[in-house]
What we know:
Distance between the termini: 43 Å
CATH topology: Aminopeptidase
Structural class: alpha+beta
Amino acid sequence: FAFALFPPEMTSFKRFTANDLFSFNTVNLDKYTETYGPQFYFEYLAHWPEYFTMARSPGGYAMGYIMGKVEGRGEDWHGHVTAVTTGAEFRRLGLGNKLMTFLEDVSETVHDGYFVDLFVRASNKVAENMYRNMGYCVYRTVLGYYSASKNDPAEDAFDMRKPLKRDATRSQSSVIPLTQPVTPDELEWE
Length: 190
């Protein structure tokens, strides 16, 4: 089954709905993409629908999606990328950048956040480089963030951050890297 490659400008972006759970599985078939149970997706749809977007080809095929949330308090108020992925056949077309820009815009214009953050596997150099090229930097390393599975050992994550306009008044203090790694139990969970 061959898919025509569509440039991002031919892609439609729409708010993710519960029905999209039936059509996005091929996008999730990737060792770097976290897949969650339906209840997790429903929680995001209920609490942060403005952050949950699906990219579709002109024929309606799922090309990728992004989901996130707003979290933190005070000067730690920020957008968080929970998952962003594109189907293998739609990679290297700029679709991931468009999805990330969408989430950054929501974080800045809707929620007036200070920064956007995300976690990426330390071994996923392609994604790390994409984020660096988009203005993200490694804020800290989180030891053993990705749990061990039957076939894979635990893996460290990079907590990457990008300052938004609101942080410019603070000399971008939200992205000044920490010098020591942290463990998952040291993270601030909302």
